[in-house]
Amino acid sequence: MALFALLDKRYGIKGPHLVVAPGSTLENWRRELRKWLPDHAVAVYHGSQDERHKIRRRMRSHHYSVDVILTTYTYFERASSGDDRKFFYKQNFAYVVYDEAHAIKNMKSSRYQRLIKISCDRRLLLSGTPVQNNLNELLALMSFCMPKVFKAGDEQLIDYFTSEKAKKQLKRIRKALTPFILRRVKADVLKALSDKVEDVRMVKLQKGTQEKLYNSIISEYKQRKLAGDVAATGDAQNIFVKLRKASNHPLLVRNYFGRTVDGVDRDMKKLVKTLADLHAFGPAASESMIEKEIASYCDWQLHL
């Protein structure tokens, strides 16, 4: 967003820009763009097939202008999204920003091949996932970002990045790539943060349900250990997770649902049948499939 603002104010380049991101982050992108760049027209290219058709028709209109388009990787994966890709291929963007760019680390994937066809002046890859020792993936990202510098399919370049010698010279390669990669390191971020304040307060468990549940988890684990249950030792970490959940709220643990009478959990059977009748997991989901799906749900999830 700071880059878009800089391009507009200093160079008069307001767009159009394209942001390709996971579907779950589109709303956040839209909200932040409207907050920090209120004078930029933002459009979200997402929705049903009919909705996307209307968006395309609207964007083709001479009376409609947009500075930033937000879309998702999905339309560059599915074979059925050909119309979506044709629309993007006809555009010429100033900048294309790829959020969670590690999603295009495979040069041979159809997603990679389709995304690289988008016409633009520049590409910017954003990723919170550091590329460690896999130089082949790093080469794929660099080639995607700057295909003229790091040519895809260049056997000599691929051999250099994937050879054992290259792995030994990892630090040297990273240093050589410094001009192309901007990293946000802890030392820089800490300068903008206020001093950390720790305030530890002891909170007692609620008398009754919470306390009983907490103690029952410990008691059950002890009984398993005394009975010689070998799996109990490996479950120690899971027990601590359960205790943490019970400390936060009793409903975060499976306690109410799961009580059996003569070996049968009657409440669960009723719930599974109700969910199947309501097609809560789709019309094709059988009762056994639903039972497996909700087996790991806590009381709070089942209650909802």
UniProtKB/TrEMBL annotation:
SMART domains listed in its UniProt record: DEXDc
Domain Helicase ATP-binding: 1-148
Pfam family, any one: SNF2-rel_dom
Alphabetical list of PROSITE patterns matching this protein: HELICASE_ATP_BIND_1
MF terms in GO: ATP binding
Signal peptide: none
Record-given protein name: Helicase ATP-binding domain-containing protein
Organism of provenance: Aplanochytrium stocchinoi
